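#onboarding

Welcome to the new folks! Below is a worked example of what a typical request in this channel looks like: someone posts a single protein sequence, and someone else replies with the predicted structure as tokens. Don't worry about understanding the tokens yet, we'll cover that in week two.

Example request:
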Amino acid sequence: MARPRGNDKGKGLARRSLLAGGAALGLLGAAGCSRVSSADAKDGGNLLDRLKTQGTVRLGIAGEIPFGYIDKDGEFTGEAPEIAKVIFKRLGVGSVQPVPTEFSSLIPGLRSQQFDVVSAGMYIDPVRCEQVIFSDPDYKMLDAFIVAKGNPKNLHSYKDIVRAGARMASGTAYAQIGYAVTAGVKRSEITVLPDQLAGLLAVEQGRVDVFAGTTVTVHNVVKQRGSRKAEATEPFQALDADGKPAIGAGGFAFRPAETKLRDAFNVELHKMKKSGELLRIMRPFGFTETEMTDLTAKELCS
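Example response:
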């Protein structure tokens, strides 16, 4: 995914586009019928109590494999929704309902109460932390490239793209665009594609030399397609403008007033981390021990 995931003001800190097509849009219509208002929330908000009474929580997703999507059978899944299903059940909310949207619409949709929680593996960064509050991250992620078979241009980092003069692509609102620009790639020369599948096809067809995404997203799409013309590179660490590691770690987003819900969610999330249940849920989506993290949202927001 991806996601990770550019910020929504153009500094390049996340990602995502809608893969699910008509099935997702149908669910959007069904999911958008009722709203749980917490505009009058005080002292940590009352949304959790309302959700318990209603019995359903609406999750904003952005249709990106493996983070949150509608699969080929029309089922709602992904690492973030599967975590949410477990946690909300333990919080007394038995049903989860997907609300698919474009990635760039997730925070506006949350703030306008189109859904209750962003469940899309969204990268946690200071810009977003000014608009929403986050759970602690459930994963951290390195980057990887899709390149032609044999990696003829020897591309293993964003600096390599500059060195080789390679034609780069990435996904809509992907963090990797910002990382590449920081390394010296001209933003005007980066091809923006809908998603990782479009990126794989562009590399296979020779329209670009490299597609940049998160390591799990990139490796998943190459494996699932069984590509004979392209391959995924080994994971690597992107750098920020100061030459320090650019930490991509994703979590769940909540409206700023709803600290009680966020805190209760965090309690269950940490239990799952400690017991190993979190990794067991995420492993089928391509996550490994390497992607597990003890980072906190407070650290990432600062």
